[in-house]
Write a structure and sequence with these properties.
This protein has helices spanning about 15-30, 45-50, 55-65, 90-100, 125, 165-185, 200-210, 225-235, 245-260, 295-310, 315-330, 345-360, and strands spanning about 5-10, 35-40, 70-75, 105-110, 130-135, 150, 155-160, 185-190, 220-225, 240-245, 270, 275-280, 330-335, 345. The chain has about 350 residues and is of the alpha/beta class. The chain has 2 domains: about 1-110 and about 260-360, Isopropylmalate Dehydrogenase (3-Layer(aba) Sandwich); about 135-260, Rossmann fold (3-Layer(aba) Sandwich). The radius of gyration is 20 Å and the shape is globular. Bound molecules: nicotinamide-adenine-dinucleotide, 3-isopropylmalic acid and manganese (II) ion (MN). InterPro entries: IsoCit/isopropylmalate_DH_CS, IsoPropMal-DH-like_dom, Isopropylmalate_DH.
């Protein structure tokens, strides 16, 4: 049976890095005889420019039908001043996540040994790092109502958002996290702000309740401010971390840097049936867009996650991850992970090196 993959390049460096990931997917398709078909659509600012909306109906329809989606990144200064916030590129991404109920966001932060020098932390603190951040992706303060900017009686304006989680939303992300921990080091740290916010008092309570179904997993709790500090002090103490939408957004960018660059961090966003959207954790990097220097590896590794989690092609996924490791062994580095003595390469050179390593494996 043919599996359909929807490619959404997006904005900024999105199309540059997705081009390389598609080359890698095409190579994997031939080498492993994969029965996958790729289709394309617009999202974000690119879709706004063409259709006047960041998430056109045709894109949503294709996304609903697809077995998996690979996305680059959205957003950029060109669209930052749009008066109607609903038309911002980021709304296209958020609309896909919530419309497809992709509540389970997996963000693995793994330090390739070859990149120990590129990490912002000392090699002994990060070597061997392999943690997984499980971020709730369709709830919390990102989606809570009411929200907006209102005028107060004294005439000044007030901005407001609402941080809410229902028990069922907490329970379903807890299950994803406990099951992930069961397959790994069996340690789960739930990150909250239960000393201040009631919504996370409930979060903690439900985590404890779900823990009873997973007696082999050791659950701990940590406040988010301490978690941010511990991530840069001694990140290897963690195995799996689970947290809400906004804390997960912030902690995963911090964790990314431990692996050498945000250009190395892939992600999977899954629904309850493991249908998923796959994207690098970074954004559209307007500061380097159009220069051909962005690191495509996070997107290539996201394509590998897609093969593993949604398309059931784990041999092809393993081979892509091995090919990435091989090009790092060859000393090839984009600017963001460059260190002395290595060979600096462009986005396309990096993509082509992964293609060659995969083809020759
Ligand atoms: P960003 O992640 O785009 O960039 C932060 C820094 O990291 C920049 O210096 C950038 O050059 C660098 N960087 C990011 N990806 C890189 C890569 N692959 N290779 C080399 N360097 C890389 O974050 P930002 O600057 O805060 O946001 C820019 C735009 O992207 C905004 O419009 C934001 O809303 C959007 N954004 C989108 C996503 C997404 O689509 N998933 C994620 C984050 C931000
Ligand atoms: C991410 C991004 C998005 C988020 C933005 C662009 C909506 O930062 O995927 O990490 O905050 O989730
Ligand atoms: Mn982010």
């Amino acid at each position: 049976m043919t599996q359909n993959v929807l490619i959404l390049p997006g904005d900024g460096i999105g199309p540059e890095i997705v081009t390389e990931a598609v080359k890698v997917l095409e190579t994997a398709k031939q080498k492993f005889n994969l029965n996958i078909e790729l289709d394309n659509a617009l999202v974000g600012g690119a879709a706004y420019d063409e259709f006047g909306t960041p998430l056109p109906e045709v894109t949503m329809q294709k996304a609903e039908k697809a077995d998996a989606i690979l996305l680059g990144a959205v957003g950029g200064p060109k669209w930052d001043e749009l008066d109607d916030r609903e038309l911002r590129p980021e709304k296209g991404l958020l609309g896909l996540r919530s419309g497809l109920e992709l509540f389970g966001n997996l963000r693995p932060a793994i330090l390739y040994p070859q990149l120990a020098d590129a990490s912002s932390l000392k090699p002994e603190v990060v070597s061997g790092l392999d943690i997984l951040i499980v971020r709730e992706l369709t709830g919390g303060i990102y989606f809570g109502q009411p929200r907006g900017i209102r005028e107060l009686e004294n005439g000044e304006r007030q901005g407001y958002n609402t941080y809410v989680y229902s028990e069922s939303e907490i329970r379903r992300i807890a299950k994803v996290a406990f099951e992930s921990a069961q397959k790994r080091g069996k340690k789960l740290c739930s990150v909250d702000k239960a000393n201040v916010l009631e919504v996370t008092v409930l979060w903690r309570e439900i985590m404890n309740e779900v823990a009873k179904d997973y007696p082999d997993v050791e659950l701990s709790h940590m406040y988010v401010d301490n978690a941010a500090m511990q991530l840069v002090r001694a990140p290897k103490q963690f195995d799996v971390m689970v947290t809400g939408n906004m804390f997960g957004d912030i902690l995963s960018d911090a964790a990314a840097m431990l692996t050498g660059s945000i250009g190395m961090l892939p992600s999977a966003s899954l629904d309850k049936n493991n249908k998923g959207m796959y994207e690098p954790c970074h954004g559209s990097a307007p500061d380097i867009a159009g220069q051909g220097i962005a690191n495509p590896l996070a997107t290539i590794l996201s394509a590998a996650m897609m093969l593993r989690y949604s398309l059931n092609e784990s041999a092809a996924a393993d081979a892509i991850e091995q090919a990435v490791s091989n090009v790092l062994d060859q000393g090839l580095r984009t600017a963001d992970i460059y260190s002395d003595g290595m060979k600096k390469v462009s986005t396309a050179e990096m993509g082509e090196a992964v293609v060659a390593a995969l083809a020759n494996a």
